[in-house]
Design goal:
By secondary structure, the chain is of the alpha/beta class. The protein is about 25% helix and about 20% strand. It contains 10 helices and 14 strands. Strand 12 (about 385-390) and strand 13 (about 395-400) form a beta hairpin. The structure holds magnesium ion.
Length: about 450
């Protein structure tokens, strides 16, 4: 009997130690998301005159992913995909009527959706968000109603709620009063604390809040989603960065974001929690070339924000976790859709199993150099699949160039077919040589479309 009691005690001690080890092992997760930053806008992704030393160091110490996609080519649906691991067509967060949410919108991310924050909360995480949400500004849709313990930021884009006046404000002095024309509110845990928000200080204040949040929750585990409002036009920066970049105002704004990334990573290092924190840097969609030099660059990629060409949805992406993520460059496919399943795996919990997820756990690629489980991406324009990639091949069924303005929507039958491994700029249509590939890709789209159940279009509600 005594022996049995001793054995039981030993077993209990082992299992308790195991539990403690698990709790300590749950890494913190930080996602830093820029707005409308292009594939070619960082020095570590090839920009010749924008200087991003902190992101470059992050990339050198971590993994730079060169074929990483967002779930859609504009703000709202892209963010819905990141937060839920599901193509936005599955939860009504994309629309053929209105492409994003506006200040008069009545819809938002449905309460039935499970965000990364809500999932990680179940694993004992504290969850904080700082920055642009754009998944519904009404109280029931705000971050604090979607699994975040705390929220500080603006509910939609910084060019919205514009009072009448100059329509070319992105060309005015960014350190002047131009921000007063955009009646955008700053929200702190459900309350409007400033309106209009002084956009010259947005990047700096987001950063200060993010750093404070990390310090407060350094004992972890925590999940921080830092979604910058910049470089979405109108561009604003403070005196410290104004006129400091060789790339002009757009470069000033990117270099301030780079400073912000440095502040976040330095804070993690100073608190000695860098080796237990995974940080991801990405952007919500491609550059808004409509605004010429006030928009960014998609580098060697064709297309821009709003387009289903690569420049609209392939983003400069960096993963960083010193001692865990092996430094290098990854050319496998990945997506923001994969962040929810990956975060769940790192936290030691199951991803939601009661719904169709479109993401994969890419932690074996990040941590162990395994091949990425992703080989397919669907490129949505509103509620329709306009293009699909599987492996090296991408077919376009409809295109529109440029993405904004009165350019026509052009259907293609047979679709345009590009080999993205040899032709990342989508220049050379090889459809006539590969009818078999086209048949496969068409079947893939049909299979995907059949898996989508009809839901309420949240973006058209007002
Ligand atoms: Mg955007």
């Amino acid at each position: 009997m005594r022996q049995f009691a001793l054995l039981l005690l030993a077993a209990l001690m082992i299992s308790c130690t195991g539990l403690r080890a698990d709790a300590a092992a749950k890494p913190n997760v930080v996602i830093i998301f820029a707005d409308d930053l292009g594939y070619g806008d960082l020095s570590c992704f090839g920009h010749p005159t924008i200087h991003t030393p902190h992101l470059d160091r992050m990339a050198a110490e971590g993994q730079r992913w060169t074929q990483f996609y967002v779930a859609a080519c504009v703000c709202t649906p892209s963010r819905a995909g990141l937060m839920t691991g599901r193509y936005p067509i599955r939860n009504g967060m994309c629309s053929d009527k209105r492409r994003v949410l506006f200040p008069d919108s009545k819809g938002g991310l449905p309460a039935s959706e499970i965000t990364i924050a809500a999932a990680l909360k179940k694993a004992g995480y504290n969850t904080g968000m700082v920055g642009k949400w754009h998944l519904g500004h009404l109280p029931q849709f705000q971050p604090t109603s979607h699994g975040f313990d705390t929220y500080y930021g603006i509910p939609y884009s910084n060019d919205m709620d514009r009072v009448e006046g100059d329509r070319n404000l992105w060309k005015t002095d960014p350190t002047g009063d131009g921000w007063k024309v955009f009646n955008v509110p700053m929200i702190h845990d459900g309350k409007v604390v400033e309106q209009p928000v002084d956009q010259r200080t947005l990047t700096r204040r987001y950063t200060e809040h993010a750093v404070d949040y990390i310090k407060k929750h350094k004992d972890g585990p925590f999940f921080l989603y830092l979604a910058h409002s910049m470089p979405h036009i109108p561009l604003f920066t403070n005196d410290k960065f104004h006129n400091t970049s060789r790339r002009g105002l757009y470069g000033d704004v990117i270099e301030e974001i780079d400073w912000s990334v440095g502040r976040v990573l330095d804070t993690l290092r100073e608190l000695n929690i860098a080796d237990n924190t995974m940080v991801v840097f990405c952007s919500d969609n491609g550059p808004w070339k409509l605004f010429n030099e006030f928009g960014g660059s998609s580098g060697l990629l064709r297309g821009e924000k709003g387009a289903t060409f690569e420049g609209g949805m392939r983003e400069p992406t960096i993963f960083w976790w010193p001692g865990k993520i092996k430094p290098g460059v990854v050319a496998d496919l990945g997506s923001t859709l994969d962040l929810l399943p990956t975060a769940c795996a790192l936290a030691g919990i199951e991803a939601p199993a009661d719904r169709k997820l479109d993401g994969y756990d890419i932690s074996p690629t990040l941590l162990h150099g395994k091949a990425s489980p992703r080989d397919t991406m669907f490129y949505y324009y509103g509620q329709s699949v306009w293009a699909v990639r599987k492996g090296r091949y991408k077919a376009h069924f409809v295109t529109k160039e440029p993405a904004y303005g009165r350019s026509p929507k052009v259907p293609h039958d047979p679709p345009l077919l590009f080999d993205l491994e040899t032709d990342p700029s989508e220049q050379y249509d090889i459809a006539k040589d590969h009818p078999d590939v086209i048949a496969d890709l068409k079947a893939l789209v049909q299979q995907h479309t059949e898996s989508v159940k009809p839901v309420v279009d949240q973006l058209s509600l007002r």
